[in-house]
């Protein structure tokens, strides 16, 4: 059947399409459909994912899949968290957003890896037109590198060094960031959440 991917973020959309590829689902994005972006008024990742998925399902009459995600920095009391996109401003300048994180870390004397802990969170929600919902959430832990490394991925990827790896997400091919075979199963927050969602409501074919 048809599925709407309720995102306007091209980096996310590319990853969601790759994760959905083995399921033979025909997906079309909210951006391609020209859907309005609902205001993300929730206080957590889960509620913002639900807001986006429900809005797209109601607008289109098709099941709709949304991700709300962000980077949570321990030394910054969890910032930017659900405000990760907003920290990049209207011009979506993630180099500036990463530099801002680094400036705040330096101010707090966070120079050693143990003081530079962070994790990405992804909340995924599928909403059906009858308002049925499935929701999952997952995270990946790591440390923040400086200067940023690599040009792959999007957002804060060049700064994020996942535990157990020597390269940042910005230095990984998407298949390795996802943790798809032969690299294991589920590395990124989004891939891990997707694995949980697939167990609930997707059948490979
Ligand atoms: P949509 O709401 O249209 O999906 P958005 O970019 O506004 O797009 P979010 O509100 O969920 O989405 O913001 C998430 C931000 O967190 C995103 O813009 C990135 O900067 C960051 N982020 C999330 N996942 C990431 C990843 O895998 N790698 C790097 N940065 C990520």
TrEMBL record:
It comes from the Bacteria. Its cofactor is Mg(2+). Belongs to the HAM1 NTPase family. Homodimer. Mg(2+) binds at residues 39, 68. Coiled coil: none annotated. Pyrophosphatase that catalyzes the hydrolysis of nucleoside triphosphates to their monophosphate derivatives, with a high preference for the non-canonical purine nucleotides XTP (xanthosine triphosphate), dITP (deoxyinosine triphosphate) and ITP. Seems to function as a house-cleaning enzyme that removes non-canonical purine nucleotides from the nucleotide pool, thus preventing their incorporation into DNA/RNA and avoiding chromosomal lesions. This is dITP/XTP pyrophosphatase. InterPro entries: dITP/XTP_pyrophosphatase, ITPase-like_fam, RdgB/HAM1. One of its GO terms (molecular function) is nucleotide binding. Substrate binds at residues 7-12, 69, 154-157, 177, 189-190. One of its GO terms (cellular component) is cytosol. PANTHER family: INOSINE TRIPHOSPHATE PYROPHOSPHATASE (PTHR11067:SF9), INOSINE TRIPHOSPHATE PYROPHOSPHATASE/HAM1 PROTEIN (PTHR11067). Its EC number is 3.6.1.66. Binds 1 Mg(2+) ion per subunit. The active site is at 68 (proton acceptor). One of its GO terms (biological process) is purine nucleoside triphosphate catabolic process.
